[in-house]
Design a protein that fits this description.
Elements: H1 2-15, H2 75-78, H3 86-96, H4 104-107, H5 115-142, H6 152-178, H7 185-195, H8 199-205, H9 211-237, H10 244-265
Helix pairs in contact: 5-6, 5-7, 5-8, 6-7, 8-9, 9-10
Family: Belongs to the YIP1 family.
Protein name: Protein YIP
Transmembrane segments: 117-139, 159-176, 188-209, 215-233, 245-266
Length: 271
């Protein structure tokens, strides 16, 4: 009987058949894919929108894709310019505080952002209005004079900062295109936006009630901002021919002019 049982098992081995009631199962189950099999898919709610290349789109996206000039009026057209995190913004802010390096445009060439410039301008408006109001209030109280809040300080600051980082890059874009040294428009917005960051601490230091100190602060901030913009555009503008010196000098002086305007209207307290 033992030999018969052995012969039966041996026949099953040779034939490769498995008894129906053997209780053996395939492992892993065919309908389950785990980490070992390498077939795991991300959860259905995983957001990969910020991991796509700039301007790219997912094939499974349900968002309608506009074509031609209509694409400029969609959120997706401007989404890549806000695809930065806190580390990127902080690195670019630090870079703006070292104007003599002239490497800002190289580091942001592949990923210029508009988030930083918007944040900087908005912060400048808030700081200019709050610091200017506080300094004026203290100056009036020290001389026992009546003080009234000037709402025009907010609207004036908004017009100056938002207007400057919008109009100047647009004009410079046209000029560089005319001299056959075109630069990316968003890259210019990014450069000019970050160039204004130095004025945030400068405005905070303007609370010191010394006129000569305020002039020094405005001059240092203006010089650093102007140098930052001029040196970062110098390497690019040299391709415009012999007139590149005039263009760089104009950029530098225009940025200094902004510092003078800020000193006269924001750093100066009149009672």
């Amino acid at each position: 009987m033992m030999s018969g049982g052995y012969t039966s098992i041996d026949n099953q081995k040779v034939s490769g058949s498995v008894p129906v009631d053997s209780g053996l199962q395939t492992f892993p189950p065919s309908g389950v894919q785990g980490k070992i099999s390498g077939g795991t898919l991300p959860p259905s709610d995983a957001d990969d929108s910020f991991s796509r290349p700039a301007g790219g789109s997912s094939s499974g996206s349900d968002e309608p894709q506009a074509s031609g000039w209509l694409h400029k009026f969609t959120v997706a057209a401007y989404k890549p310019y806000f695809d930065v995190d806190t580390t990127d913004v902080l690195d670019r802010l630090k870079e703006s505080l070292y104007p003599f390096r002239g490497t800002f445009t190289e580091k942001t060439a592949t990923n210029p952002d508009l988030y930083g410039p918007f944040w900087i301008c908005t912060t400048l408006i808030f700081v200019a209005a709050s610091i200017g109001t506080f300094v004026t209030y203290v100056a009036h109280k020290l001389r026992d004079k009546e003080w009234n809040y000037d709402i025009n300080l907010v609207t004036w600051s908004a017009g100056v900062f938002y207007g400057y980082v919008t109009v100047v890059p647009l004009v410079l874009y046209v000029i560089l295109k005319y001299f056959s040294a075109p630069s990316g428009l968003v890259q210019l917005f990014c450069l000019y936006g970050y160039s204004l960051f130095i004025f945030i601490p400068a405005l905070c230091l303007s609370v010191v009630p010394l006129e000569i100190f305020r002039w020094i602060i405005a001059a240092v901030a203006g010089f650093m901002s102007a140098t930052f913009v001029a040196l970062n555009l110098k390497a690019h503008i040299t391709s415009a021919g012999e007139r590149w010196v005039l263009i760089v000098a104009g950029i530098f002086l225009l940025q200094l002019g902004l510092a003078v305007v800020l000193k006269l209207y924001l750093f100066t307290v009149s009672v």
